[in-house]
């Protein structure tokens, strides 16, 4: 492509002839001088029409792994920090290169990324600049970033949270693999869900091609809290070789964040997008969300899993309309058989005999999986200190607590009908 001349050249200006809003050109000019000095050639400056958040996240991962794909050529300003203090649950405090003010260079692609701090109109902000040897080099680099991001995403569950300052990205490691056989569900529901998951990610979706089925799927999991919806999703996440993104909807979810989320996940397809408590989607964003689901390509290669504790808040059109959620599965409270199985797996036989345990499974009718877990905790604590267990009292206390909680919900929750997806 023929290079067009620039009407305004920085070398021909000074502070008396150019408005202050072009002051960042001082930094750009110095960066380009560095390229010629260190690389022996100049790099072309590109304008990013969309944010570089995905590139930022990938660069952070590359830096944390001491990858040789990246170099730091220099910093822009000497009075702005070049290292950042971070904290995580594993390593406590860490020092790492700051994404801001450093000039990152990818020698294999002849591409440089700079997040430059700017001070204009009495305000401080950061602007992203991307440089490349040519268009071909930049396109190869962007494809590399997508491949790297997908590779990093396989390491855990990737969390996208809508905040007041935009979409926040983080990653949660799967420290404990939940086995499929440990998921307590009705057998037909469990089989149906896992079959659809396996066929979606098996051999590049060959099943969908064989039977001429659109390569996208959405399921909605609903039921009262504490019965394993989140546990089921974690089990799925740890058992498929595909990126898993957990999108946390908040009061800050907007049309912009919806677009950003689907832009991210579409690039990572085939993948799983998990949306917990989907009924909490702000009303002003719902039409945009539905239009996105209805888009021809927005869900291609995406296995969408939504959960809700309040299915009565969701309009049936969300479930019944093709292309949104194809199936809805009720995650019920465990029946006596499942309760008995769960209590055995928890190891209650170390405190109770088999007959008492069987009776306990009958007594705990109406308790959720989470409450059964608390039951185990309470029995273990009492046994640890007293070497005996008052099972009847513990069960009675848990059931009374559940009744009080439900009464409080009925008294304070004001349903104005369906909120209307």
UniProtKB/TrEMBL annotation:
<dbReference type="InterPro" id="IPR027417">
    <property type="entry name" value="P-loop_NTPase"/>
</dbReference>
<dbReference type="InterPro" id="IPR003959">
    <property type="entry name" value="ATPase_AAA_core"/>
</dbReference>
<protein>
    <submittedName>
        <fullName>SpoVK/Ycf46/Vps4 family AAA+-type ATPase</fullName>
    </submittedName>
</protein>
<dbReference type="Pfam" id="PF00004">
    <property type="entry name" value="AAA"/>
</dbReference>
<dbReference type="InterPro" id="IPR050168">
    <property type="entry name" value="AAA_ATPase_domain"/>
</dbReference>
<keyword id="KW-0547">Nucleotide-binding</keyword>
<dbReference type="InterPro" id="IPR003593">
    <property type="entry name" value="AAA+_ATPase"/>
</dbReference>
<feature type="domain" description="AAA+ ATPase">
    <location>
        <begin position="215"/>
        <end position="335"/>
    </location>
</feature>
<comment type="similarity">
    <text>Belongs to the AAA ATPase family.</text>
</comment>
<dbReference type="InterPro" id="IPR003960">
    <property type="entry name" value="ATPase_AAA_CS"/>
</dbReference>
<dbReference type="GO" id="GO:0005524">
    <property type="term" value="F:ATP binding"/>
</dbReference>
<dbReference type="GO" id="GO:0016887">
    <property type="term" value="F:ATP hydrolysis activity"/>
</dbReference>
<keyword id="KW-0067">ATP-binding</keyword>
């Amino acid at each position: 492509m023929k290079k067009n001349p620039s009407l305004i050249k920085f070398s021909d200006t000074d502070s008396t002839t150019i408005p202050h809003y072009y002051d960042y050109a001082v930094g750009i000019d110095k960066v380009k001088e560095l390229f010629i000095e260190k690389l022996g050639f100049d790099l072309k400056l590109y304008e990013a029409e969309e944010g570089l958040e995905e590139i930022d996240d990938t660069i952070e991962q590359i830096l944390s792994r001491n990858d040789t794909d990246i170099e730091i050529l220099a910093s822009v300003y000497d009075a702005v920090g070049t290292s950042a203090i971070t904290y995580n649950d594993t390593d406590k405090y860490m020092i790492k290169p700051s994404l801001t003010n450093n000039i990152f260079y990818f020698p294999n692609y002849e591409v440089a990324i700079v997040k430059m701090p700017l001070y204009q109109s009495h305000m401080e902000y950061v602007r992203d600049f991307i440089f490349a040897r040519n268009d071909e080099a930049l396109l190869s680099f962007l494809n590399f970033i997508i491949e790297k991001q997908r590779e990093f995403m396989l390491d855990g569950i990737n969390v996208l949270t809508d905040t007041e300052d935009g979409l926040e990205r983080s990653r949660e490691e799967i420290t404990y693999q939940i086995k499929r056989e440990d998921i307590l569900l009705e057998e037909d529901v469990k089989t149906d869900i896992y079959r659809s998951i396996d066929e979606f990610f098996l051999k590049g979706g060959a099943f969908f091609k064989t039977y001429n089925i659109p390569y996208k799927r959405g399921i909605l999991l609903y039921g009262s809290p504490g019965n394993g919806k989140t546990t089921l999703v974690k089990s799925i996440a740890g058992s498929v070789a595909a990126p898993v993104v957990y999108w946390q909807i908040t009061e800050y979810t907007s049309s912009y964040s919806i677009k950003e989320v689907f832009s991210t996940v579409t690039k990572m397809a085939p993948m799983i997008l998990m949306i917990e408590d989907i009924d909490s989607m702000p009303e002003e964003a719902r039409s945009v969300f539905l239009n996105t689901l209805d888009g021809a390509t927005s869900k291609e290669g995406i296995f969408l899993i939504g959960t809700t504790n309040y299915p009565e808040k969701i309009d049936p059109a969300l479930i019944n309309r093709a292309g949104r959620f194809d199936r809805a599965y009720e995650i019920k409270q465990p029946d006596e058989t499942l309760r008995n199985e769960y209590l055995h797996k928890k190891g209650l036989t170390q405190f109770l005999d088999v007959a008492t345990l069987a009776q306990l499974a009958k007594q705990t009718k109406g308790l959720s999986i989470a409450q059964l877990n608390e039951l185990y905790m309470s029995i273990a604590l009492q046994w640890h200190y007293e070497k005996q267990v008052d099972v009847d009292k513990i069960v009675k206390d848990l059931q009374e607590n559940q009744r009080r909680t439900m009464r409080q919900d009925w008294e304070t929750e004001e349903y104005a009908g369906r909120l209307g997806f």
